[in-house]
Amino acid sequence: MGAFADPGRITRAGLRLHPARRDGRKLLPDLDAAIRACGLRDGATISFHHHLRNGDAVLNQVMDAVARAGLRDITVAASALFAVHAPLIEHIRSGVVTGLAASTIYGPLAVAVSHGILARPVLMYTHGGRARSVESGDLSIDVAFVAAPVADSYGNLNGTHGRAACGPLGYAVTDAHGAERVVAVTDTIVPYPAVPIEIGQDWVDFVVPVASIGDPSLIVSGTTRATADPVALGIAETAARVIAASGLLTDGFSFQTGAGGASLAAAAYLGTIMAERGVVGSFAAGGITAGIVRMFDAGLFRALMDVQAFDIDAVDSFRRSAAHQSMSASMYANPHNRGCVVNRIDASILGAAEIDRTFNVNVTTGTDGIILGGSGGHADTAAGASLTLITTQLVARSHAKVVDDVTTVTTPGETVDVLVTDGGVAVNPRHPELADRLRAAGIPLVGIDDLAAEARRRAGGPARPRAADGRIVAVVEYRDGTVIDMVPAA
User: What's the whole-model pTM score?
Assistant: First the structure.
């Protein structure tokens, strides 16, 4: 229907809550007791957040407890799933888990899903679309298990302190506000009240202590490190020049970068230009990284709007600065609320596994059809930002990345404005005025058809054809809840 065809009617699902008794105790001895107290049954949907990313230890502990309880036909609705969650494969094989829903899936689990380990397709959301789905009731959560770096015995939580401090709990906030039952899982219990309070006691049913909720050093991953590759650095520098020439880089400028290496490097080049021009931005949004924190500390932005910290420097910034603000996943990117933060972003730099001649972007599958991630905030940010840039090399591992048709559509081309590659810069034909600005600034432009031809030449042949339609292993939802693509079994 188009990225903006469905403005949505804001709805909120009715939510059944369980009031606490005046003398009731929320602190339980273990996860087994929590599962019994929640009345978890076969066929339930349970949710998890991913703020500890590949360092998360909560999901696996909970699923082991679910298996011990003899439960089956469980749907795991996580905001994202990482390589550390590979033990889910055995729970799927044993029938404990029969459904998955997530914004991104990485590692062995993604491979297993791609080969059809589940009988029914995985639902893949955008970050904003997942929040919309929870709030509208499309995704109904029976129990949300919240990894809480700090908690008190009555359920006040934060990610600011504790052994596994992870920063903002933006995805957990959405789940806590949308689930029938909420269990805080923590390795650091402090005297009441735990401050600052990010998720309050009025949203938490039970608190469970465990030995460890995870390893915060594994929050950062290969996808959240700036590149050192000279070709990618050249792309990053050009992307910064495009923004500088767009007319948007003035006082009050707002910005978000994706988690890809070139996108992160582009932020550093942009910071240099902002300092040279004396530009002070209003805010940077994210997934906040160390590079964005350095720009903030240098006075290049007045505030940071943060749904999740991408590294320990961002966690530290959130702890020490009042202007480093947390936001829920809904506030960040839900298209069906009263106004999300992505709508206020001037420029966004994002990556791509593939981009096609109509500027559609794929960050969901590889050319072999194997799931390699998913939208996360990609499609949300592209839709909201005034200027969306995609940065990518023309070829990676002998595969063309600028293609005739992407393997899977993640982000629709109508929300993408500029493609920056090592073969040149292409502007979406929808924006001739932007093309004129870039030419006037001395930035040479090429057509995206020419970039696709050059990528094909460098790759040594045509792109691998998309897998023939067969059993569907994943349904890719756009942020408004419509289906933008489907992933056949690899």
Answer: 0.96
